[in-house]
Automatic annotation (TrEMBL):
The lineage of its organism: Bacteria, Bacillati, Actinomycetota, Actinomycetes, Kitasatosporales. HAMAP family: PxpA (MF_00691). Forms a complex composed of PxpA, PxpB and PxpC. Belongs to the LamB/PxpA family. This is 5-oxoprolinase subunit A. It comes from Streptomyces catenulae.
């Protein structure tokens, strides 16, 4: 169970935003901000730059969307998806640095950073690696006090966060395939990303209403979550997010932030 109580038929909808830098843009931030209730904003290590962070924070604050720090390994060339070995104390400093950078722009927009979510390789590493998870949590504590930590249910990240007195929020993915153990299928494997819009919508409803989804192999997997992620870097992400939100509402599911 999450430290933030899971309520029946209530779920947050989050997406990764600000994933560009300079003249390069990957995510349709404005369109997604009109749909999601929480925005995972890239903090400059896997994507994002000061201008992008400022713009996303301003638009999120104006639209009542909660701002989250999406922290990553220092891997701009690899989009934060390459495995890295970073000492826990160094990782903690880098996590604090990223949260602090985003907090400047969130405050300038009249808001605050509301939670922290690791990105890519760091997210997956913290499912099983206690040392890396501890580094992330130490960084959150140093920069954000008691910020909630968004992550996979049952992860070492959530174990470390709970031990440090941080709230945890379980997250599920409508557009990612699951293993029978409840972890995400690695992106390098075929079928890791669910591309069929009908399937994504169906999975979103199953997660929100039933707390379950089919694994990549077809077996049922329990995935009770307070927040549902739709990746902002997939083609047609904004239109898909609008449809998912509409279908959730039609099914009697309330979409609202966990903060």
């Amino acid at each position: 169970m999450s430290d933030l109580a899971v309520q029946p038929a209530v779920i947050d909808l989050n997406a990764d935003l600000g994933e560009g830098f300079g003249r390069w843009r990957l995510t349709d931030d404005d369109a997604l901000l009109s749909v999601v209730t929480s925005a995972n904003v890239a903090c400059g290590f896997h994507a994002g730059d000061p201008g992008t962070m400022r713009r996303v924070c301003e638009r999120a604050a104006a639209g009542g969307v909660v701002i989250g720090a999406q922290v990553s390994y220092r891997d701009l060339a690899g989009f934060g998806r390459r495995a890295m070995d970073v000492p826990a104390d160094e990782l903690a400093d880098e996590i604090s640095y990223q949260i602090g950078a985003l907090e400047v722009f969130a405050r300038a927009a009249g808001a605050r950073v509301g939670y922290v979510k690791p990105h890519g390789a760091l997210y997956n590493r913290c499912v099983h690696d206690a040392e890396q998870a501890a580094g992330v949590v130490a960084g959150v504590r140093a920069a954000g006090g008691s910020l909630p930590v968004l992550g996979l249910p049952g992860s070492r990240l959530h174990e470390a966060a709970r031990a440090a007195g941080l709230p945890v929020v379980e997250e599920a993915f409508a557009d990612r395939a699951y293993t029978a153990e409840g972890t995400l299928v690695p992106r390098r494997e075929p079928g890791a990303v669910v591309e069929d819009p009908e399937e994504v919508v169906g999975r979103a409803l199953a997660i929100a209403r039933d707390g379950a989804v089919r694994s990549h192999g077809g077996t049922p997997v329990t995935v009770r979550a307070r927040s549902l992620c739709l990746h902002g870097d997939t083609p047609g992400a904004a239109a898909l997010a609008r449809r998912v939100k509409a279908e959730l509402a039609a099914a009697g599911v309330t979409v609202r932030s966990f903060v």
